Amino acid sequence: MTWRATILTLFPEMFPGPLGLSLAGDALEAGRWVLEARQIREHGIGRHRRVDDTPAGGGPGMVMRADVVAAALDAASPAEEARPRLLMSPRGKPLTQGRVRELAAGPGVVVVCGRFEGIDERVIAARSLEEVSIGDYVLSGGEIAALAVLDACIRLLPGVMGAEDSEAEESFEAGLLEYPHYTRPREWEGRTIPDVLLGGNHAAIARWRRSEAERITRERRPDLFGPGRKS
Ligand code: SAM
Asked: Is-above-0.85 flag for pTM?
């Protein structure tokens, strides 16, 4: 079954964007995933295809209309849709590698990209949208967030990554950040590669990597470390 991504956006020309290159681009060309970027404005109101209006209660900015977003969603994804419907939102649950793994293992995703102040709350409830954040900062629109979600999922699809086992050792996969990497030259600007990596003792290398991964995780992300950590 091909993994399918449907993106609802006011800027469909932003897709595939960077996902048309490198691993994701090759996989798209090979048909390992399918992308459909749909223009929300096609469901806009009136001659000007209006998609937004002023916030109820006043305040700055504009809000994307529930009826417009719902019409775009209903046209793109049937009621019995098996794919999760995500809404990119700084208010959402922060995306984790665990959730990415689940999404990549499923049939694909439907992603709504907000603009302006966001979308009318009622459509979030009415269409069971899962709000997903890619971090505690505010982007100008959901498209770059959607690209990040897709990129993280696509590289996990079968046959997409070159070295199949590189995934197992990556940051977050074992609840740890990854150990440091080195390559040639052996000495660069007076800095050397740790001796253990050059000795050919694979058990010692594995021990060193594990302890470095633990040290870095403890120092940089204590929230990931130890019992009760988030996956
Ligand atoms: N008024 C909103 C707030 O304060 O939470 C911010 C709206 S933002 C300017 C416009 C859109 O960008 C959002 O509707 C969302 O789709 C997207 N967006 C912004 N930051 C995001 C983040 N950290 N993660 C996911 N999507 C984000």
From this structure: yes
